[in-house]
Amino acid sequence: MIYFNAFLLSAVVCMIGQIILDNTKLTAGHITSLFTVIGAILSFLDIYPWLIKKAGAGATILIANFGHMLLVGGMEGFASQGFLGIFAGLLTKSSLAITSAVIIAFVLSILFKPKD
Amino acid sequence: MGSLVFAKVYLNDYFTIVGPKEQKSKLKDFNLSFDDYYFGVKSFEMAEIKMQRLVIENLLKKSQVDYLIGGDLINQIAISSYAGKEYKIPFIGVYSACASFIEELLLASLLVSSNNAQNIICVTSSHNLTAERQYRYPTEYGNTKPHTATSTATGSVGAIVSSKKSNIKIVSGTFGKIIDLGINDVNHMGAVMAPACADTIFEHLKNNNKNIKDYDLILTGDLGKVGVSILKDYYKTVYKKTLSNVLDSGSEMYKPDQDAYAGGSGPCCLPLYFFCKIISMKKYHRILLVGTGSLHTPALVNQHLTIPAIAHAIEIEVL
Prior knowledge:
The structure holds two protein chains of two kinds. By secondary structure, chain A is mostly helical. Chain A has helices at about 1-25, 30-45, 50-55, 55-60, 65-80, 85-90, 95-110. Chain A is built from seven helices and no strands. Chain B is of the alpha/beta class. In chain B, the strands form three sheets. Chain B has a six-stranded mixed beta sheet with strand order 1-9-14-13-10-11, sandwiched between helices. Chain B has a six-stranded mixed beta sheet with strand order 3-2-8-6-4-5, sandwiched between helices. In chain B, strands 7-12 form a two-stranded parallel ribbon. In chain B, helix 1 crosses helix 2 (about 80-85) and helix 5 crosses helix 6 (about 225-240). Chains A and B meet through loops of A and loops of B.
């Protein structure tokens, strides 16, 4: 069942993204930011953890999960270190994704040339 | 005002270079083509500079020139400046986006017609991967485009405007006005430029006491498939006349299977189609070339300003 849910959730999110892309002037960058914010809001409302439980990787590979991770990291930082902990903890959970993206992009940009 | 009449001004020689996609398009009889967007150098900008240099060098083999007039799409017309620095020829840099080549021809015709020069090289170029980055988004960003968007053509064109007689005569021309009807969509340049194009065509016809039917062909620059239908509608609504013999270089350039959205664009689009297709067809004799340019800059579009447009026209007689 979780496989089906994963497929369904990702598909619905992709469909929403495609509809926005086709019908507005927003670009991929805008949509990525939009989904991140939506993920954080869903996380705040405690909906995102439920989605992850139901759909597994179908929810965690989405960019919305980045928003969720930001919120969780910030909240954990606040719980352990107080107000300044929000800033200290904000990126801890998403460090894997951000750091790997930066390093992989760097390596690939050295290895390959842009094409048409 | 704005219309000019020239005496004894001819287009003598021309040289054309086309890129990977254009060599498979409807264009024929180009002088040179290449398969790789890098053109054997390190960056796309350098490739574009190399194209212009090749054009200039090949034209210089044929005659001595008094002036070099250049224009392109990249910041501060960098390509033309870098291409032109190799040759110790007085240089005039012009910018009116994709109407640059027509503006160059008009300026050159003025200089030749007033006997201030005998031979002038006009050169322009565009490169798909430099221009898309300049005006829209770089390819690496992976942005999709709507069907109203045009795709910048890769190529470079140079021509010698001269007082020496040849079979292509420059008869008259019109400098257009800047027209802004309040559109700010960078993926819909056809709509931005069509009103400017219509205004210039109307002014040119009015000032020269001509009719649309006096021309075998009105060849517009890069309005694209959507833009050219907007032009016809707009002309009919505003000026109450039907534009029947209009062809748009951008929308005609590529074959249907080449996936170029609404068509090609860029300052090299109009001259490429004119030199590599219209001339060899030998079908049209009195031609009005109308270059259309969208005069926006990404910084101001991002500040939500609307896009001004311009069109310049030049009348050509092919004997």
